[in-house]
C-alpha cells in the first residue's frame, strides 16, 4: 500500500554501507516509522583474489573494494527506497550514512580515489582497503611493540594493542609495500568520511573513526617523533588524515547538485557527518545511556557501549570520548568473524541436503547442551577482541566418528557466544557495567543463536525493532543534523525502536554453559596467549607456500611441466 504524506510529515534517509551491499531506509522524523527500504549489492563485492581487469593474484589476507560501488548505492538504493516509501522526495530534510570501518582509501586532494587515476589502477594499494583486510598484521605488530617500548600513553586506550584492521597499520603497510602510491596519496580517508565528501562536496572527519580507527586521543594523533621512529617517511602520515573534525550528529554540509541528481533528493538538505555502522546503531536501539551493550551481529560482530567514565579495558578495540554520542566515553570491542563462520560451514563443510542455516539450526536445537562433546575457538577470521591477533585461526576440539554436521554447526554458534562473553567479562572486570545486550543485524533473526547468547552470557537480550538497525541509526543522525532534534539523545528517544528482553537466560542452561565456557577459556588462553604458537607457525607456513606457488605459476616452463 502506498504511503500518504501527512500534512506536516518530514523524512530523513539513512544509508548503511555493509561489507557486501548498501541499504537505504526512509524514515519519518516525528516517530521513526520506517516507510521504505532498498538494497544495492556492490558490483565488485569484496576484492580478495585479483583486481578488476587483472589476472595477477592478490596475496593472502587482502580484502579490497571499489569506491564506485559506494557511489552506485546513492544512485540506485536511495531513489529506490524513496520510491518504495511512496513519499514526496521534496519532504526529505536530511541524509546520513554509516560505513564499515576501518575501511579506508588513498585519494588526491580533491577526493579522487587513487584507483581511479589511470596509471595507478593496477596497483593494489591504490584501492579501498576493507575493514577485513588483515595483511597489515606485521605493521600492527611493529606499531604495538614501539608504542610499548616508548610508553606511549594512547596505547592503553586501545586495550594495549592496535589492530591490523586499523588506519595506522594499513597506512604503514601502504608505505612499506608501495611508497610511490603512499606519496601520491594526498589524503588517506575513511570510506565513512569519503562518502560524506561525495554527498556534500566538503571534506570532513568524524570523531568516531578518528578515535577508534585512527589513533586520535585527547585532541591529538601520535607524535611525529613516534611516527618517524617507525619509518622516517611515515612522519607525515597524520597530514594525510587530519581534517575538520566534527562530533556525531553534526551537519557536514548541504547536498550538492551532483549528489541531488544521483539520489533524487533536494539539493541543499543536511548531510550528517560520517559514522560507523556499529556506533550509529546505539541510537536506533535507544541504547545511548551507559550499560546497554549493543551487538551488531552480521558477518562480524561489533560491540559498543557508552560509559560514564574513562577506564582502560585490556583487549578492547578502543575507548573514545564522544565516540558513540557526545558527553559519554564510548567503548568498542568486536569479533572479526561470526556470521561468516556459520556461512563458511554451510557453504564448505555441510553435506548436500543439510547445507542451510535453517536445517542445521533445526537439528542443532534438538540437542542437550554439551551433547555434542565439542568446544570450538571462533577465530576463523582471526581475533579482534580480546587478543587482537589476525594470525590466529579456528579450532574444533572433541571430534569423534559419531560427530555429525549439526554438532559442529552448534559448536560454532556457541563458540561465538563464548567470544562475546569474554568481551563482556573484560568490560565488567575493568569497571564498565553491562546490564543487557541489545542485538541487531542479520543474525538477530536466528532464534537458536539468540537463545544461546542469552544463556551463555546469562543476560537478557533485547532486539532493535528494525530490520535495518544501522540505517535507522543513520536516519536518526540525519534528523539531528537537519535540526529536527536538539541532540542525538532526544532523536534516539523519539525515533529509536527496541523490544526489551525478547530472550531471557534460563538458569539451568546458563549453569550448563558455565562448564563449557571454562573449557573455551582454557583453550583461548592456551592458543591465544602463548601456550602454543602453532596457529602463527601454520600461518607462516601457508604464506610461504602460497608465495612460492605464485612465483612458480609465473614461470611458463614449469606450468607446462
Ligand atoms: N540464519 C542464519 N543463521 C546464521 N548465520 C546466518 C544466517 N543467515 C545469514 N547468516 C550469515 O550472516 C551473515 C550476513 O549478515 P548480515 O547482517 O546480513 O550482513 P552484514 O554483516 O554484511 O551487514 C553472513 O555471514 C551469513 O553467512
Ligand atoms: O569494525 C566495524 C566497526 O567498527 C565493522 O564495520 C566491521 O566489523 C564490519 O561489520 P559487518 O560485519 O559488515 O556488519
UniProtKB/TrEMBL annotation:
Q: Which SUPFAM superfamilies match?
A: Actin-like ATPase domain (SSF53067)
Keywords, sorted A to Z: Arabinose catabolism, ATP-binding, Carbohydrate metabolism, Kinase, Nucleotide-binding, Transferase
For the protein in the UniProt heading, the enzyme class is transferase
One GO term in the molecular function aspect is:
ATP binding
Q: Cite the PROSITE patterns for this sequence.
A: FGGY_KINASES_2
Annotated Gene3D superfamilies: 3.30.420.40
Q: Which reaction does it catalyse?
A: L-ribulose + ATP = L-ribulose 5-phosphate + ADP + H(+)
Concerning CDD domains, the annotation shows: ASKHA_NBD_FGGY_L-RBK
* GO BP of this protein: L-arabinose catabolic process to D-xylulose 5-phosphate
Which pathway does the protein contribute to? Carbohydrate degradation; L-arabinose degradation via L-ribulose; D-xylulose 5-phosphate from L-arabinose (bacterial route): step 2/3
Boundaries of each Carbohydrate kinase FGGY C-terminal domain copy? 294-482
How is this protein annotated for GO cellular component?
cytoplasm
One Pfam family from the UniProt entry? FGGY_C
Return the EC number: 2.7.1.16
**NCBIfam families referenced in this protein's UniProt entry, alphabetically:** L-ribulokinase, PRK04123.1
Sequence similarity: Belongs to the ribulokinase family.
Please identify the protein, giving its name as recorded: Ribulokinase
According to its UniProt entry, this protein's organism is: Micromonospora mirobrigensis
Amino acid at each position: 500500500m502506498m504511503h500518504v504524506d501527512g500534512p506536516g510529515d518530514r523524512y530523513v534517509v539513512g544509508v548503511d554501507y555493509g561489507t557486501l551491499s548498501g541499504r537505504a531506509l526512509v524514515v519519518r522524523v516525528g516517530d521513526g516509522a520506517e516507510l521504505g527500504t532498498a538494497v544495492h549489492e556492490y558490483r565488485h563485492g569484496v576484492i580478495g583474489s585479483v583486481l578488476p581487469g587483472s589476472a595477477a593474484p592478490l596475496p593472502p589476507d587482502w580484502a579490497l573494494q571499489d569506491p564506485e560501488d559506494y557511489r552506485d548505492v546513492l544512485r540506485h538504493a536511495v531513489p529506490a527506497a524513496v520510491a518504495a516509501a511512496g513519499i514526496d522526495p521534496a519532504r526529505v530534510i536530511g541524509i546520513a550514512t554509516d560505513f564499515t570501518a576501518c575501511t579506508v582509501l588513498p585519494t588526491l586532494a580533491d577526493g579522487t580515489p587513487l584507483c581511479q587515476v589511470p596509471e595507478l589502477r593496477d596497483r593494489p594499494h591504490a584501492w579501498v582497503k576493507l575493514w577485513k583486510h588483515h595483511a597489515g598484521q606485521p605493521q600492527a605488530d611493529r606499531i604495538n611493540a614501539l608504542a610499548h617500548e616508548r610508553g606511549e600513553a594512547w596505547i592503553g586506550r586501545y586495550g594495549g594493542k592496535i589492530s591490523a584492521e586499523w588506519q595506522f597499520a594499513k597506512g604503514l603497510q601502504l608505505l612499506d609495500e608501495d611508497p610511490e602510491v603512499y606519496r601520491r596519496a594526498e589524503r588517506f580517508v575513511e570510506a565513512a568520511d569519503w562518502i560524506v565528501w561525495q554527498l556534500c562536496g566538503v571534506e570532513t572527519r568524524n570523531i568516531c573513526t578518528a578515535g577508534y580507527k585512527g589513533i586520535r586521543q585527547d585532541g591529538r594523533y601520535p607524535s611525529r617523533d613516534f611516527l618517524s621512529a617507525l619509518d622516517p617517511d611515515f612522519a607525515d602520515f597524520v597530514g594525510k588524515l587530519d581534517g575538520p573534525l566534527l562530533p556525531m550528529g553534526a551537519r557536514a554540509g548541504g547536498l550538492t547538485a551532483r549528489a541531488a541528481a544521483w539520489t533524487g533528493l533536494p539539493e541543499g538538505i543536511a548531510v550528517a557527518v560520517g559514522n560507523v555502522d556499529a556506533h550509529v546503531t546505539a541510537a536506533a536501539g535507544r541504547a545511548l545511556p551507559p550499560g546497554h551493550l549493543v551487538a551488531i551481529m552480521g558477518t562480524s560482530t561489533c560491540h559498543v557501549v557508552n560509559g560514564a567514565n574513562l577506564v582502560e579495558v585490556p583487549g578492547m578495540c578502543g575507548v573514545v570520548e564522544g565516540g558513540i554520542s557526545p558527553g559519554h566515553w564510548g567503548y568498542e570491542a568486536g569479533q572479526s568473524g561470526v556470521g561468516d563462520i556459520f556461512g563458511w560451514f554451510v557453504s564448505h563443510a555441510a553435506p548436500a541436503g543439510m547445507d542451510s542455516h535453517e536445517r542445521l539450526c533445526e537439528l542443532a536445537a534438538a540437542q542437550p547442551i554439551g551433547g555434542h562433546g565439542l568446544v570450538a575457538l571462533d577465530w576463523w577470521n582471526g581475533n579482534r577482541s580480546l587478543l587482537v591477533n589476525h594470525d590466529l585461526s579456528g579450532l574444533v576440539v572433541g571430534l569423534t566418528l559419531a560427530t555429525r554436521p549439526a554438532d559442529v554447526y552448534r559448536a560454532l554458534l556457541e563458540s561465538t557466544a563464548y567470544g562475546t562473553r569474554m568481551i563482556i567479562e573484560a568490560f565488567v572486570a575493568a569497571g564498565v557495567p553491562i546490564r543487557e545486550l541489545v542485538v541487531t543485524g542479520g543474525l538477530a533473526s536466528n532464534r537458536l543463536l539468540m537463545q544461546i547468547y542469552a544463556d551463555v552470557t546469562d543476560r537478557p537480550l533485547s532486539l532493535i525493532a528494525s530490520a535495518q538497525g544501522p540505517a535507522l541509526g543513520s536516519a536518526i543522525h540525519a534528523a539531528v543534523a537537519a535540526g529536527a532534534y536538539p541532540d542525538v539523545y532526544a532523536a534516539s528517544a523519539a525515533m529509536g525502536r527496541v523490544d526489551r528482553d525478547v530472550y531471557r537466560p534460563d538458569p539451568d542452561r546458563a549453569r550448563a554453559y558455565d562448564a563449557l565456557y571454562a573449557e573455551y577459556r582454557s583453550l583461548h588462553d592456551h592458543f591465544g596467549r602463548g601456550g602454543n604458537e602453532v596457529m602463527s607457525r601454520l600461518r607462516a607456513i601457508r604464506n610461504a607456500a602460497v608465495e612460492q606457488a605464485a612465483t612458480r605459476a609465473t614461470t611458463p616452463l614449469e606450468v607446462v611441466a
